[in-house]
Amino acid sequence: MSVRLEELVAATRRSVERRKGEVPIAELERQAGEPVIGRPFAEALSRPGTSLIAEHKRRSPSAGAIREGASCTELVRAYERGGAAALSVLTEEEHFGGSLADLREARAASQLPILRKDFTVDAYQLFEAKAAGADAVLVVVGSIRHEELGGLSDLARDLDLDVLVEIHREEELGIALEVDADVIGINNRDLEDFSVDLDRTFELLVDVPAGKTVVSESGIRTREQIEELERVGVDAVLVGETLMRAPDPEAAARDLTGYEEPTQA
């Protein structure tokens, strides 16, 4: 694990321990056990074409402040009108300015499936995600011990949460395949120095077996890039900063998806 990634994960672990003292896991288990309307995340990514996972992200270590004062409700509704297939909501607090409150707000504002994007390192976070209305969670292979990945993935499935297993290197792909990950995210951003190279998706995609859902993450700004990824078999793209910085997020989402607004009768 790189020093930068270690810092991010350490901050997450501290935050999780604090929240454990505020809300007992038994209470989260009770909330997570309440019936919800099914919003399958992985299924939403398998529709024809390359699906857009539109992200709500206030800031990041590499970009700094992006749109900190933005209304989560307004943004996710704009993304939905623009043709997004799913949403991603950053909930990491210290470095990304996110919160579970953002996730709950997005859930109340949209019927699209939602990915809780955070460094998932503890089972407690899975119960948090479920209780807050998430339909999927992110697990970054490079952020946890290999033996933890299988346990977190199994518990997520028990909670009816899809898992986006994120990789950046060939050896991480091998680990993701060992736990039979259904949805594999290829992060084009190197978490050691935060550089971005879209070729990372093309390099790793050739070793992904047929039948897996593949998501390309980071560095995607244009419809042309998405069409290029679609030609090689990428199922979905996750886009955050481009949409968050856009003066008109709905129009920006529409540009990326190629979605045409329904004609009024």
Detail the topology: elements first, then pairings.
Blueprint: H1 3-22, H2 25-32, H3 41-44, E1 51-56, E2 59-60, E3 64-65, H4 72-81, E4 86-90, H5 100-109, E5 114-117, H6 123-132, E6 136-140, H7 146-158, E7 162-167, H8 170-178, E8 183-187, H9 199-205, E9 213-217, H10 223-231, E10 236-239, H11 241-245, H12 249-257
Parallel strand pairs: 1-4, 1-10, 4-5, 5-6, 6-7, 7-8, 8-9, 9-10
Antiparallel strand pairs: 2-3
Describe the structure.
There is one protein chain. The protein has 265 residues and is of the alpha/beta class. It has one domain (3-33, 40-257): Aldolase class I (TIM Barrel, Alpha-Beta Barrel), CATH 3.20.20.70. It contains twelve helices and ten strands. 44% of the residues are buried. The model has no long low-confidence stretch (mean pLDDT 92).
